[in-house]
Write the structure tokens for this entry.
Amino acid sequence: MIAANGKVHWSEILEKVNHDELIYKLTLKYLRRDGYDIGNWKIPEVRPS
């Protein structure tokens, strides 16, 4: 998803995990750990660093 588009919005991740907040937060945590820029509340998107 991120490799194809270059970025993904937080809302897209939330939809993919069926609005399960725990999975959503863990996804963002592991994306950050793997070197992705997960943005912030002003820029709610995940991009490669």
Q: What stands out?
A: Helices lie at 2-5, 10-16, 21-33. The first strand starts at residue 8 and ends at 9.
